[in-house]
Amino acid sequence: AYAQSKLAMTLYGVELARKFEGSGRRxxxxxxxxSNTDIVGRxxxxxxxxxxxxxxxxxxxxxxxxxxxxxxxAIREEGIPNGSYIGxxxxxxxxxxxxHCQLSDKALxxxxxxxxxxxxxxxxxxxxxxx
Length: 131
Description:
Blueprint: H1 2-20, E1 29-30, H2 39-44, H3 46-59, H4 64-67, H5 69-76, E2 85-88, E3 98-100, H6 110-124
Parallel strand pairs: 1-2
Antiparallel strand pairs: 2-3
């Protein structure tokens, strides 16, 4: 469920970037990397979460404040192109200074993004107008 929600958010960002093409507006997607937060325990359960925390501490970002650096970078840096994906530049994008990352093929699936957008409009009974 966690991975699916992250893919859905990315698909929305990519679809919004397509809708913004030529408008002068941008849709930027950012991810924090692996961050030492309580989401590990909530996602994997308390016991497994506690066992995983030493690995998160060793390979990940120290906490939520550092995890926000990719989002802050995306907001503050000038000239980042519409549709860019920003995240840590270290090994496996788990930690490091923020910069441009590569989206997965699934996240770039235009048909899947279009279907998700359309389904969301149908589900909410509202049309998301981008003008």
